[in-house]
Amino acid sequence: MVAFKNVEKIFRLIRGTTRGMDEHMMGNKMKEKGMRFEERVATMLSNRLEANIKRNVTLIDKRGNRSEIDIVYGIFFKTYVECKDYSVPVPLKDVAKFKEVLRLNNIGIGRGLFIASGDYVPRAKFVDIKLLDGDQLRRQEILAPFIGIIKFASYLSLTLSGYLFMIFG
Q1: CA-to-CA distance for 115 and 94, rounded, in angstroms?
Q2: Which domains does the chain have, with CATH numbers?
Q3: Regarding predicted confidence, which is higher, 163 or 102?
Q4: For the segment 36-72, what is each residue's pLDDT rounded down to a tens digit?
Q5: Average model confidence (pLDDT) across the chain
Q6: Which of 44, 125, 135, 30 is nearest to 81 (CA)?
Q7: Which class for 21: exposed (0-12), middle (13-18), buried (19 or more C-beta within 10 A)?
Q8: Is 113 helix (H, G, I), strand (E, B) or coil?
Q9: DSSP assignments along 73-139, one per residue
């Protein structure tokens, strides 16, 4: 009887350890999937020639709470981007949490952008945060190089006109 109890304990330990390993491996896969999605969004922003793109930026609010923002870009007017690669619609709580992180860090909600690989639950669309769903992201990815070319041409023409003005007065 004692041997049976020991064997049962061993099986419980093995099952518990295996279950923990499965959850750990699943968590790593989800994290990798999220990181790939963030990279996809950062690439799209880079193709649009957005400036100063940084990933996984830590913010510390006035109470000392730390929050991580997936992507921050811009020089004078920064935009803060939260990315979610869910197989189900993004829930209201995720969008509301992002809005609250912005508020706690004295960042106007107009500077926030929430990008999802899919869609949002209906109520999440009324939180006053700019949302980009999967279809809109795909369109932006297609347009990004063209937007980048237009920006580059604008910068180039402004720079040249400035030089010409300096030379010819």
Answers
A1: 11
A2: 35-168 (3.40.1350.10)
A3: 102
A4: 999 999 999 999 888 899 999 999 988 898 999 999 9
A5: 83
A6: 44
A7: exposed
A8: strand
A9: E-SSS-EEEEEE--SSPBPHHHHHHHHHHHHHTT--GGGEEEEESS-B-GGGGGSSSEEE-HHHHHH
Residue appearing with tokens 């945060």: 129
The two three-digit tokens of residue 59, written as one number: 């913010």
Picking from 45, 63, 66, the residue whose alpha carbon sits closest to that of residue 54 is 45
Q: Which residue is associated with the tokens 């880079």?
A: 46
Distance CA 130, CA 122 (A): 14
**CA-wise closest residue to 116 among 97, 100, 138:** 138
CA atoms within 13 A on the CB side of 1: 0
Angle between helices 134-168 and 2-47 (to 10 degrees): 40
Sequence-ordered alpha helix ranges (H) in the chain: 2-47, 92-104, 134-168
CA pair distance 65, 100, nearest whole angstrom: 12
Q: What gap in Å lies between CA 81 and CA 98, rounded to an integer?
A: 9
Taking Cα atoms as reference points, which of 131, 80, 134 lies closest to residue 107?
Answer: 80
Other beta carbons less than 10 A from residue 127's beta carbon: 17
Given this model, what pLDDT does residue 146 score?
81
Residue at 125: amino acid letter:
K
What span, in angstroms and rounded, lies between the C-alpha atoms of 109 and 88? Answer: 24
Compute the distance between CA of residue 150 and CA of residue 154 in angstroms, rounded to an integer. Answer: 6
